[in-house]
User: Fold this.
Amino acid sequence: AQSVTQLGSHVSVSEGALVLLRCNYSSSVPPYLFWYVQYPNQGLQLLLKYTSAATLVKGINGFEAEFKKSETSFHLTKPSAHMSDAAEYFCAVSEGGAQKLVFGQGTRLTINP
Amino acid sequence: GAGVSQSPRYKVAKRGQDVALRCDPISGHVSLFWYQQALGQGPEFLTYFQNEAQLDKSGLPSDRFFAERPEGSVSTLKIQRTQQEDSAVYLCASSLEGARFGQPQHFGDGTRLSIL
Assistant:
């Protein structure tokens, strides 16, 4: 069965610092991978997706993620954090043939001024 | 264009009451999903429709939960005889084809259900 593990339920960085949010997945076949962001009292907004076209994926708001098959990882990064990046971030996986998304527990990102 | 719309945004019900949650997907989207998000957790899959057909309902926690999409557009999630553990945010998402083909799911803002 597919699953997602997000290491660190809370991450705190200073404004302008590097953001690194970790995601590891388990899947028996090449997966589709997604990062979503959720602001308070809102739904999930897609940041980026991996669908096997390229291992380094660029998304919105300056975020990017790299798919590493050997490490079964899909970590999310941003070179310079902005106050508006404070939110909850979810990594999700879907295997071919399965329609549903399986989400990690989420990582709450806090930006310190 | 318009995104996924859910109503009501907030619902308070007494234990034992029935509730109905509505989802209007993005026009033209074939696939529709319902997820349940408990406080401080990631969303968990409930059920999936392709047009009007409910193809996967493996995530529905009990037979008190029922979902329908009769005309392949608007969907309703109904919970009968609500219990306190049903308190959560219920998210609806739609996509052109579904995650199988790498199509992202577009989420509504959710309905926050509180059972007293």
